[in-house]
Each structure stands twice: as structure tokens, then as C-alpha cells.
């Protein structure tokens, strides 16, 4: 059910010819009210696609009526023509929905530099078609229409006492944090004030999507949007809502990790006993971004030396010669030297668990990543063709 | 001739059984004087191998008699036993050469965590054998003995008015800057004061090895050492010497790039019109470390969008929507949009030239890197086995 699981939302996904495969490529999600609360977080990349530039302005008043999303073209670095395409898409949707264009967010994903007149015509036609097909059962169709190299549609639903959160996500590469790291739309029928929606979204994404770092490459098009309409007439405690939202975001983040391009291992890097949470994240991310470590995991090689070499490049507070490293439950390194024989570590399962104990403080954090594989190289060397 | 090209140096390389292949794995370079000036730069990684910890202390007085190098084991994270191995190696060399152990530098390269009693016994025996075989023609043997996954020995010689600089380098992976990025020994018979040697070495490495970033992974064992003995009795102007040293370091850096593990392209990233040289390096390095860009180049795909996405993550001063990008002479992006068709770009040659014009200032810098290939993944997923 995805984004249409909560009451008062409609969605659709249609094929508009943007993808050469003919698969669905334009999605629309509409909030039917009564409230039209919206919040969004965006890529931290300074190179922002036109839809990001548009949506950052449109969400500023925290009123969002609808989100139009397309795959098959990022509309990034397409100049003023590309920005006009985004603007016209919002105006088209607004006209058909009877709302203000300034309350329509736009998200695009696909190849950078793609956005010619054909692209524009197809996005506009697709938007019209999707709006004509809007339905309270359209969540799954929408989730399929935003897929690029994703192999499965990614959705999640959480229900609590009288209110529900639904979400859909796309993302299989260029996954690295910077406020947001992919296209995600989350809907809820909980009653939320605009500032509450914003706070809950930032709290949730900061601990979930921001800690997914599949390949260290930050996208130009990332956007995570939360729409809240209060249709349930239940106003949850903000902490309760934020906790449920974080749970949903984490579920989607794990699904993104599990579908990362070419990956053969989903690696959970758990950093313990750091002086600060920031230190723990920095240490975890340094390992997540180390190609030699990632290639070793692909080869089922518990090469803990590469973990130590990676964390030694950080500014985090710890003694590099008093760190414990576990791989899938086996302590392979302790006190600056080898511990258990590497032969004891079984890295054949897809789920890989690395624990790094810094023995320096009481903070902890977990970063999710993937291994570096032949298939990752293959998929990303042939993307444009 | 490598390190024995300048007058007054002897070297040797022998097989001590550290490599399972039986190839040479221990090298010694000795300065026969009259001066015994030494300078060295080391990895910026906080996780330092035992030879680094030893050599940093040994070079502090700027007197160096000899360097002992081994491949086949990094002696990193091998605890106090590993440090004793380094210490004993220096003492063994010092005893045989009739010098102080505190004037002998040690360099090791190979797998982290390797350094047991067998390793120690073989390093000590190899050191003894190499010293017995020292000769003024031994430079090439030494250059071969420090190879790991290198496919060719890397040496360079530059001669000026009466004085010569010779060098050898090893490095084929884990190449990322941090003062130094590999094992390099450079010798000269020029007359240099200790502080001059130090300054010239830092100036040269800062513009050469520090701007080689093959895979973003900083080693635990990197060391670049300069030995100067004044045997030519010529004292060059410091700027002249520094320029020649930089030329030699650049030649070795290019050879390292050309032999990087699994690479199929040598990529020169030239950043122009930056506000500062620091900005230019940051921008160049962001591209050099972007796996999606590197995979695209492997696929001969001029995916300039990935260049823009990479540089957008930096803090350098420039307008992301007013940047020109050239690939192998074709301007593919200008003023925030596409320029010439990507079909015009021929990326089939190994040498790849990317120019990024930030249009913001007068500074420039060039960063060297490689593409991300199947073979890189293969070599680095099977390294420990």
C-alpha cells in the first residue's frame, strides 16, 4: 500500500516513455487533507538538480498538496530550460488538482544532463495521465514508477493507535548521506503541526538514511518528503510519532541497502565506546568508504587490517593501538594486534556485521554499507549506455 | 641504476623467503658518505606500522646511514613483538655496518597483521644477506625487492651540473595522499644541509606524491626518504635542487599511477581557475575518489554529470552552475548544462585528461588517479589469499 496506506492520500504511477524499457516512470502522490502539512530534507550536494531547487522553495511554507516524481532523467545540469520543465510540471499538476503550483513538489531521478524537449513533453503528459489515474490504492504503482536500477519496489507501512505512516523509496546507487540520500515520499494521517512534521522528519532521517553510505557518492537529486493530513484525527505524542517515523525510515534504508547496485554483502558497521556519536559516525563512515575493505568483504576476506587503516585516517578520539574489531562475531583484532585466526570468520552470508570497539567513551553509532563488487563496477561503467 | 646512480651509495636486494613466490623481498640502501644527511615524510594515517614509528624517531636528528626495506609483510598491528622485530632489524644492520641503530630507517610493506617469529627470522637473515651483497650497482636489485603487487620496478634518475638524484618506488594500491603514499627511497650526491634536505623533500612530495590518489585508501606504512651524502662536492642552489627533486618525484608518481592495481586508465584531473590551490586540490581529489566517475571512465563513458556531482560535495569556492568540463579535449559541459555531444569524446586511450575550469580565480592543481575496474576489485578481494 505504500504511501496510500494512511487515510486521505491518493497516488498513481504511469509509463510516460521516459524509460527506454517502457516501464512506469511518472508517479504522483496527492494529499486530500484535511491538513496539507509538508516537510522535506534535501541532498547536501551543492550541485542540485532543478527539482531540488524548486522543491526547496515550494516546501518553505510547509504546505504541500502533492509530489510529482519521475524516473528516466535527473533534470540536473539542464540549464534554464530544465528549470522551466520543473516549473511547468508543477503548474500542470496544480492546474489539474486545483491547487497552487507553489504547493507541488517535484522529484526527478536518472541520468544527469538529460532533459530535452522530448523529456519535457513526456513528463507533462505523464503527470496529466497519473493525475487522471489517482486512486486510494495507487501506492504500489507509484513505488514502481520511481525505480531506476532498483530491482524491487521499496515500501513500508507502520500503524499505531489510530494513525498510520506509509512510505516508498527508490535508490540503488549514489547512496551517501547529506540530509537525504534518495527519493522517498512518506505519508501519514496523524495530526501534526508543521514544525512537528519538520522536526520528526529531521530526527528520523538523521539516524537512518544519513547513516546509509553504500558507495560514498552523494546524489544531486535526493529528497525525502513527509506529507501529513491529520485524517485520522489522532494527534500522537511527538516522541511517539518520531520513533515510529524513524522505524519506518530505518526499514526503508535497510531495503535500499539490500538492493544496492551489484552488492553481494549488506554490511552493518557498529561503532562502540566512542567519545561522541559524531566520532562514532565518522569512524563508521571511514570504513564504509574504504574501497579496499569493501573489496575484501566481497572476497569473503576478513581483512581487519583494512578496518584499522581506514579508521586511522579519522580525527575521532581513540587509541589506534587499543581497538577491538569483531567480524561476524569473531574478535579478529585486539590491543593493536591479531586475535582469533581469520579462518574462524565466516563471511559467506550476505549479512555482514563488523563491530569496532574504540574503548574511549560511551557513544555508539551504526553505519550501513555494501561491498565493492564486479557487478557494481559493471553496472556503473555501463549506466549511460 | 635507481638509488645507486648518485656517487657514494650502495644497495642490494635479496630473497629472504618473506614472499611465498620466492622473489626478492629485502632491500638495503647504504650511504657511504661523506655526509649522512637524511629526511623523510611519513603516512598521515594515525594507524602507523611499527617501521613508521621507529623511523620517525630515527630520522629526527636528520642523520641516516642506511635504510632496510622489506616486502612480504607490513609489520603493522603486530604489537610489541612486531616493534621488537623492527628494532632488532635496525640493530642487526647497524652492527654489520658499524653504525648506530638510531641512524637506520626501516620500511615494510605487505599484509597488515603479519609479523610472527618466522617473519622476524627471515627479515633478520635477509638483512644480513643483503648487507653482504651491497654494491654500487645494486640499485635495480633493491628496486625489485620492494615490489608487492607492482608489475614493474619503478626507478628514476636525474642528473644536473655535477650532481645526481636517484630514486626507487613501490606502490600499486592503497595509494592516497597523507604526506607520503608509498615506499620511496631517494638518494643524491649533492651537498645539502639537513634542513635543506628536509625542505626540498617536503616541497617536492607536497606537489607530487601527495597529489596521487589512486584509490582513496591511505596506507599505514608509507614513507619517502631522501639520503644526501655530498659526494659530488657540488652544493646546488636550493631552488634548483628542489625543482629537480620535484621532477624526479613526479616521474615516480606517474610510474606508480601507471602500475596501479587493475587500472585501465591513468586519469589526470586538472583543475583551473580556482580561488586557491587548496580549493583546486580539494576539487580534483573529490573527483579522484568518486567511484561512480571512476567506473564510468572504465566503461569509456564521458559521464560528466558524475564530475559535477562529485565537486558539488566540496567546500571550494565556485558556482556549480558555471563550471566548464573537458574530457580528452572536448568540452562536454558549460554553464550548468551540456555542451558538445558525449559521442565526440574518445576515452579508449589509457591516458585520460579531465579539465575542470571553476572560473573563480587564478589557482590551479592537478591530481592523478585511476579508474575503478573489475581487476581492481578482483585483486583487492583476493589479496590475503
UniProtKB/TrEMBL annotation, chains A, B:
Pathway: Amino-acid biosynthesis; L-arginine biosynthesis; L-ornithine and N-acetyl-L-glutamate from L-glutamate and N(2)-acetyl-L-ornithine (cyclic): step 1/1; Amino-acid biosynthesis; L-arginine biosynthesis; N(2)-acetyl-L-ornithine from L-glutamate: step 1/4. It is an enzyme of class 2 (transferase). The record marks 180-181 as: Cleavage. Its EC number is 2.3.1.35, 2.3.1.1. Its main location: cytoplasm. GO terms for molecular function: L-glutamate N-acetyltransferase activity, acting on acetyl-L-ornithine as donor. The active site is at 181 (nucleophile). The keyword Transmembrane does not apply. The record marks 109-110 as: Involved in the stabilization of negative charge on the oxyanion by the formation of the oxyanion hole. The keyword Glycoprotein does not apply. It holds the Pfam family ArgJ. InterPro entries: Arg_biosynth_ArgJ, ArgJ-like_dom_sf, ArgJ_beta_C. Keywords: Acyltransferase, Amino-acid biosynthesis, Arginine biosynthesis, Autocatalytic cleavage, Cytoplasm, Multifunctional enzyme, Transferase. It comes from the Bacteria. Substrate binds at residues 148, 170, 181, 261, 380, 385. It catalyses: N(2)-acetyl-L-ornithine + L-glutamate = N-acetyl-L-glutamate + L-ornithine; L-glutamate + acetyl-CoA = N-acetyl-L-glutamate + CoA + H(+). It is found in: Cytoplasm. NCBIfam families: ArgJ, PRK05388.1. Heterotetramer of two alpha and two beta chains. Catalyzes two activities which are involved in the cyclic version of arginine biosynthesis: the synthesis of N-acetylglutamate from glutamate and acetyl-CoA as the acetyl donor, and of ornithine by transacetylation between N(2)-acetylornithine and glutamate. Belongs to the ArgJ family. This is Arginine biosynthesis bifunctional protein ArgJ.
Amino acid at each position: 500500500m505504500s504511501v496510500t496506506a494512511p487515510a486521505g492520500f491518493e497516488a498513481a504511477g504511469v509509463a510516460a516513455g521516459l524509460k527506454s524499457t517502457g516501464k512506469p516512470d511518472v508517479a504522483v502522490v496527492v494529499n486530500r487533507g484535511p491538513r496539507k502539512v509538508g516537510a522535506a530534507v534535501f541532498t547536501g550536494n551543492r550541485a542540485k538538480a532543478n527539482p531540488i531547487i524548486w522543491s526547496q522553495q515550494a516546501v518553505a511554507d510547509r504546505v504541500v498538496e502533492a509530489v510529482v516524481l519521475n524516473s528516466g532523467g535527473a533534470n540536473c545540469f539542464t540549464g534554464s530550460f530544465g528549470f522551466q520543465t520543473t516549473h511547468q510540471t508543477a503548474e500542470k499538476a496544480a492546474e489539474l488538482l486545483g491547487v497552487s503550483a507553489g504547493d507541488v513538489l517535484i522529484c526527478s531521478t536518472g541520468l544527469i544532463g538529460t532533459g530535452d524537449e522530448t523529456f519535457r513533453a513526456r513528463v507533462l503528459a505523464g503527470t496529466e495521465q497519473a493525475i487522471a489515474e489517482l486512486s486510494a490504492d495507487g501506492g504500489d504503482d507509484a513505488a514502481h514508477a520511481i525505480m531506476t536500477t532498483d530491482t524491487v519496489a521499496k515500501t513500508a507501512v507502520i500503524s499505531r493507535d489510530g494513525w498510520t505512516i506509509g512510505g516508498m523509496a527508490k535508490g540503488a546507487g549514489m547512496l551517501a548521506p547529506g540530509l537525504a540520500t534518495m527519493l522517498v515520499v512518506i505519508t501519514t494521517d496523524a495530526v501534526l503541526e508543521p514544525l512537528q512534521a519538520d522536526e520528526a522528519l529531521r530526527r528520523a532521517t538523521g539516524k537512518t538514511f544519513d547513516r546509509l553510505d553504500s558507495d560514498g557518492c552523494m546524489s544531486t537529486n535526493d529528497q525525502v518528503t513527509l506529507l501529513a493530513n491529520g485524517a485520522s484525527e489522532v494527534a500522537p505524542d511527538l516522541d511517539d510519532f518520531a520513533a515510529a517515523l524513524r522505524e519506518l525510515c530505518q526499514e526503508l534504508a535497510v531495503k535500499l541497502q539490500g538492493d544496492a547496485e551489484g552488492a553481494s554483502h549488506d554490511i552493518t558497521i557498529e561503532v562502540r565506546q566512542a567519545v561522541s556519536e559524531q566520532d562514532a559516525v565518522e569512524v563508521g563512515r571511514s570504513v564504509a568508504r574504504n574501497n579496499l575493505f569493501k573489496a575484501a568483504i566481497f572476497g569473503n576476506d576478513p581483512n581487519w587490517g583494512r578496518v584499522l587503516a581506514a579508521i586511522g585516517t579519522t580525527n575521532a578520539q581513540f587509541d589506534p593501538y587499543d581497538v577491538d574489531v569483531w567480524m561476524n562475531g569473531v574478535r579478529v583484532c585486539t590491543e593493536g594486534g591479531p586475535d582469533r585466526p581469520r579462518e574462524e570468520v565466516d563471511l559467506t552470508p550476505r549479512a555482514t556485521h563488523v563491530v569496532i570497539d574504540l574503548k574511549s567513551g560511551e557513544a555508539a553509532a551504526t553505519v550501513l554499507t555494501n561491498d565493492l563488487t564486479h557487478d557494481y563496477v559493471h553496472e556503473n561503467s555501463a549506466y549511460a549506455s
